Amino acid sequence: EKGEEGSFSMIYTYTSKRPYKKNNWMPNNGWGFRSMIDISNEDLYGDFTYQRTTVDTYSNCKLGMGTLYVRGKGIYLNGNPPAQEYVGLSDDEPIYLFGKTDGFTENINLRGSSGFRLGNCMAMSTVEYRISLMETLPVNIFGISLGNVSGALISDIGNAWYTEQDMEDWIITAGAELKLGLRIGDMPLFYYSIGYAQTLDNWMDENEPELYIQCSLINPF
Fold first, then answer.
1. Does the chain have fewer CB atoms within 10 Å around its N or its C terminus?
2. Closest CA to 56 of 36, 41, 73
3. Would you say 71 and 220 are in contact if contact means Cβ atoms under 8 Å apart?
4. Rounded distance, CA 68 to CA 31, Å?
5. CA dist., res. 202 & res. 186, Å (int)
6. What is the pLDDT of residues 74-102, one digit of tens each?
7. Hey, how many other C-beta atoms are within 10 angstroms of the C-beta on 174?
8. Are strands 187-199 and 210-215 parallel, antiparallel or unpaired?
9. Residue 188 banded pLDDT, cuts 50, 70, 90
């Protein structure tokens, strides 16, 4: 949707994590919290007036041979934003650089589900039990290599709704995946997930899950 827009953002981020090199692909400690408010007002500048509030938090906890990773995120949108500033769940693939959301607007895609669900509110959480498999692979082409391989049992939960309408049932998915890092030298650039997942209803009906390949999140920030 065309139009001029001026916005003001306030962000607060807190992280508590020991500075291990392994945090780039397999963190087993620490947690983080981030809150952000975006404000646009056409009386000051532009064609749109709206406010968006985002809260995001995560935690890593060593558990047995692996790490339990938990994340929660919520968004509330109020006002009349341009159409591209939608809130909701989508089929659009997420893009993560260095396994983080920093620098990109995150597309919330619940692994193992399909379809769009829009609203002015969105809430999601994810739980993963991650296990380290292999730090390096014997593949190196012009300094680009593969490595940082881990496996994970995953579950995503999410919903999107309009505050003035009835809420649909929550979407709950589960599955398993491999995470694989694409590195330049020792620096991991992108992480990819290759996995099978579907909704709990489909698992109970003994349906066959579909394969997915997408950018993978290590820690959101």
1. N
2. 73
3. yes
4. 12
5. 40
6. 999 999 999 988 899 999 999 999 999 98
7. 20
8. antiparallel
9. confident
pLDDT at position 143 over 80: no
Give the pTM: 0.91
Tell me how far apart the alpha carbons of residues 221 and 31 are, in angstroms, rounded to a whole number.
Answer: 10
pLDDT higher than 80, residue 52 = yes
Please state, rounded to an integer, the average pLDDT across all residues of the chain.
93
| CA distance from start to end of the chain | 29
The residue among 125, 133, 114, 111 whose CA lies nearest residue 180 is 133
CA–CA dist 83, 1 (Å, integer): 6
Q: How many residues does the chain have?
A: 221
Distance CA 7, CA 9 (A): 7
Cα dihedral 46→55→157→22 (10° resolution): 120
